[in-house]
Amino acid sequence: MEETIIAQRRAKAEAMRAQGLHPYANDFRVTHLAQALHDEHAGATEATFEEARVEVAVAGRVMAVRSFGRVVFLALDDRSGRIQVNLFKKAVPAEVWALLKLLDVGDIVGAEGPLMVTRKGELSVKAEALRIVTKSLRPLPEKWAGLTDVATRYRQRYVDLIVNPEVRETFRKRAEVVRYVRRFLDERDFLEVETPILQPLYGGASARPFSTHHNTLDMQLYLRIAPELNLKRLVVGGLHRVYELNRCFRNEGVSTRHNPEFTMLEFYQAFATYDDLMKLTEELLEGLCRHLHDTAEIEVEGHRISFAAPFRRLSVYDGLVEYAGLDRAQVTDRDALLEAAGRLGVKKADSLPLGYLQMEVFEAAAEEALIQPTFVTDFPLEVSPLSRKKDSDPTLVDRFELYVAGRELANAFSELNDPDDQRRRFEAQVAQRAAGDDEAHPMDEDYVRALEYGMPPAAGQGIGIDRLVMLMTDSASIRDVIFFPLMRPEG
After folding, report:
1. Is omega for the bond preceding 310 within 30 degrees of 0, making it cis?
2. Residue 186: how many CA atoms within 13 Å on its side-chain side?
3. What are the tens digits of pLDDT across the range 254-297?
4. How far is 455 from 268, CA to CA, in rounded Å?
5. 404-427: per-residue pLDDT in tens?
6. DSSP readout, 143-207?
7. More reliable by pLDDT, 343 or 429
8. What's the pLDDT band for 490 if we cut at 50, 70, 90?
9. Tell me, what's the pLDDT at 228?
10. What Cα–Cα distance (Å) separates residue 423 from each residue in 125, 405, 454, 488?
11. Is the N or C terminus of the chain more exposed, i.e. has fewer CB atoms within 10 Å?
12. Residue 320 pLDDT greater than 90, yes or no
């Protein structure tokens, strides 16, 4: 069926060429956008345009055609919204009326004429000239929203955007989130920087990298898993407030919350602690929510979420007590943790070092219950190779992760700037790698050397932009907020 329609539309394109009309012209000039016209002329009546003629030239995709003999109505979508174009047979040249026989839903057209208001009160363009400037060969789906194969929506995002205004709005909000974050940090004297994506040594997170090969230099390179170490090198160099909105790549599974290529904000502030970043994060997220929604409360997957500060604070140990059913004395007891791990379905728990075991039990028991914004604090030292030890308890670190709606949104800590301690942490990670942990952090001698020059006390944070957009748009899957998520090949 589709092949027949495509053949018919190709024939119409050839008919246009035979008439000296270019089916892919590029000389139509737009004077007005749909939404601007609606805003400017809200409340206009028929008498309004009888008193003062308003000439416009609009262009967009034809989303619907309604024909009533001598009158044809077109629903036209441009980048701002929709406007109706009306063609009256007695008011247009014969060649324009004849062109309607070559017109299909999906074509991109340009229309010129005065504004009018229909009897039903709809602002419209009374076309005196009409051109097909792009002939669409493939038909648009008739009931796109009803498709059960969501993979087709992600693979053919261009069609999804054409027929689904809600999707366009989601990505407009994504752009607004990024603009707001930039403005927020710029106003606080942070400097936006760029660091390499291709790296000879990856680091800054516990993850498996994608690898590639540089032919000229004959060297192995990796796509960055995080910009952290390079950003902290800049702090060493005297750039005491830096941020990067960056693309990261992790060779991991695909799910509703994970895409191997994702966008992250990382920022670092000298002479600040993780407590300072909690306050900054509260200010950022509450301000962003109010900017987008005019309120600090939004609906996320059926939950009413409040971004009004202050957010809840919950230590890992308190979370093990509250959610995993452990006594306070059991949070460091391996046998008690293993019993809880078995109860919670944690796999291969008996092979995990104590700190990793604590975190696996915590995440299995508590993560999905953390609906309102919650700073989870005081992580085990073992799982935090780049974080500063707590002065009050050196088995823990000054670190937090922010959870909202059962999802991790951010990770932050007071930075480890003791080069000797950092070397020991790297060496412990190298030992874990040798024992089979392919996500353990590699040794980075140059980073230790940078710390030996002296990094001021600092705190840093990473926020997942994709997950932040998911929250702010109540999107169930990360694929809903990434234009072109990674998909298996078709077929």
Report:
1. yes
2. 9
3. 888 899 999 999 999 999 999 999 999 999 999 999 999 999 99
4. 12
5. 999 999 999 999 999 999 999 999
6. TGGG-S-HHHHHHTHHHHHHH-HHHHHHHHHHHHHHHHHHHHHHTTT-EE----SEESS--SSS-
7. 343
8. confident
9. 96
10. 70, 37, 14, 40
11. C
12. yes
Q: 344, 406, 392, 399: which is closest to 376 by C-alpha?
A: 399
The pLDDT of 439-465, averaged and rounded, is: 95
Residue for token pair 């997942």: 464
CB 225 within 8 A of CB 198: no
Q: Where are the domains of the chain?
A: 2-134, 163-311+372-480
Alpha helices in 367-489 (DSSP H): 419-434, 445-453, 465-473
What is the C-alpha to C-alpha distance for residues 439 and 432, in angstroms, rounded to an integer? 9
How do beta strands 303-306 and 297-300 pair? Answer: antiparallel
**pTM confidence score:** 0.92
> Domain 163-311+372-480 falls in which CATH fold?
BirA Bifunctional Protein; domain 2 (3.30.930)
- For 382, residues 6+ apart whose C-beta sits below 8 A from its C-beta are 353, 354, 355, 356, 428
Q: Does domain 2-134 have CATH number 3.90.960.10?
A: no
Q: What is the 3-state secondary structure (H, E, C) of 355-399?
A: HHHHHHHHHHHHHHHCCCCEEEEEEEHHHCCCECECCCCCCEEEE
